[in-house]
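Morning!

As promised:
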Amino acid sequence: KNEVEQSPQNLTAQEGEFITINCSYSVGISALHWLQQHPGGGIVSLFMLSSGKKKHGRLIATINIQEKHSSLHITASHPRDSAVYICAVRGGSNYKLTFGKGTLLTVNP
Amino acid sequence: GAGVSQSPRYKVAKRGQDVALRCDPISGHVSLFWYQQALGQGPEFLTYFQNEAQLDKSGLPSDRFFAERPEGSVSTLKIQRTQQEDSAVYLCASSLLGQNYEQYFGPGTRLTVT
């Protein structure tokens, strides 16, 4: 079993819909990252969080440390949001990131 | 630019060839990471440098993989006698020192071994 599980693996939405991507992990962590990867492109860090909630524009990330679960929400989704969204965790005092397999989001106009 | 750069962006190698992949981190970033991302998978850790010291190479899949960062800036990942299973995107990331700093990723090098 992977230490980091994401769901769904694939998600198709219509423009304007509210999107939720989930991430569950099985180890103790010091931080959780949400990353965005466009086809053929590099990875961009969206959020790094260790508790509570963060918001940036139309993106919201939440984490529940007790339940070992995080969600990434996109409000008013747009076709340019189409990308792979990856959850990654850093355990304890470790510098290593352990990644989920990613969620492929497609937003249709 | 001010971001992490990698070269080449694409590399096709015949099985058995040696390849060298380069990473230019953000200036001043002490920490440098290499990751391997197979098609349809998330990245996996290969190795970590703090300045010129390679503190962790536990993710290197075999002794055919070798990484260096001799002056604490540019890093090179070398793969000897490439195999088809080495085909992947190789990502480099850099960060300031300390676990609370974000990692900034380069665009990756897509390696295809034929």
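DSSP finds no helices and eleven strands in chain A.

Hope this helps with the figure draft.
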